[in-house]
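Bit of a strange request maybe. I'm writing a small parser for structure token strings and I need a real example to test against, not something I typed by hand. Could someone generate the tokens for this chain?
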Amino acid sequence: MAFGEGGGDATAPLISSDGQKRHLNIVRNGNEWTASAHVITAVIGSGVLSLAWSMAQLGWVAGPGMMVVFASVTALQSTIFADCYRSPDPEHGPHRNRTYAHAVERNLGSGSAWVCQLLQQTALFGYGIAYTITASISFRAILKANCYHAHGHDAPCSFDGSYMLMFGGVQLLLSSIPDFHDMAWLSVLAAVMSFSYAFIGLGLGLSNTISNGVIKGSITGVPMKTPLAKVWRVSQAIGDIAFAYPYSLILLEIQDTLKSPPAENKTMKKASIISILVTTFFYLCCGCFGYAAFGNDAPGNLLTGFGFYEPYWLIDFANACIILHLLGGYQVYSQPIYQFADRYFAERYPGSGFVNDFHTVKVPLLPPYRVNLLRVCFRTAYVASTTAVALFFPYFNEILALLGALNFWPLAIYFPVEMYFIQRKVPRWSTRWLVLQGFSTVCLLVSAFALVGSIQGVISQKLG
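Reply from user aminoacidic:
Good idea to test on real output. This should exercise your parser:
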């Protein structure tokens, strides 16, 4: 089974409720600004809130240094990967690779594509879990901020995890959005929210540093009882930073929304540079000011760890922005899975009405809406499963580190580099080949180091 759809401006087959197959043209009208909104929605997420904690583990030299390194790696990777959107086709002209797995299949073969598909779907599912955990933490932080304001900072303010269910319920409604082409408005809203809470975190960290009259922290970061414990913490911090940057999982899906001309890869490269510059500025400011404000006591989540208590209304507003952003971010990372399921079942069961029929539903005061039973059932099951896993593993920093380490090398580095060799016909053992292979090997070692530490962190949290 192919992982993507045809070349050129291929149309997507849909079957209406009258049983007739129709082709609805995909309208690609995105530009560098809509693409930047999608990327910022995906990148400036829960990861930014853990960067002060990551800085505390790494210290004043290694902390900012690792952020700059990962920003540079992401810029290089996104530039290479954007060129993989179209593949040469002597018969029909350049072929669109509308998904990550399809690009891998066209360039590296079906075996690599299946491995890529497994890793990508696992990582995307993990992002859904992480965003559900983060949203629940922000819900509880709002209630705690109000409780602490009313009863004092030592009050026993604790709340359960039922807010994950609320977040999942809203995601059930948002999962009715058909695909990326219909959710630019949600990405723009989420991007605005991410800027809002990033600015608040930055401002609170700066004001706290000024009121302290001293810049806290050290060159080496938090001291640990044993060198091994320090190694585990450093590896988790690297995993958190790795989680905060790459967006290779959804780059081609975003690029598929862009209009042409100009060439999609040129527009995507501009959007990537804009997004990486913006996110790196916020990351450095939030991480550095958060560490300067709290030093070794920097909380795992800057806006929910209650390093800041007042003004409580601003904490409430920041966490409300986080929740709204995560609603959009969850959908950005879920859409590739939804689209894969739509294609897979449509190809597997072409004659099934349950899979292919669309029914028009009319709700008073709202425009008619087309409903497909497979989409309703699959997306409901997907949201329910991410919510269930989040309830069982509610560990913010450890889950972020695990996800970052797990997908950083294979999905953000290895496959894009190997496809670049094929696309550009780079000779083996040439200077360019050796440099990129060395780059890939270093990233593999960093990813493995972060993965081991993050697994140890999850196990310790579960047992402890």
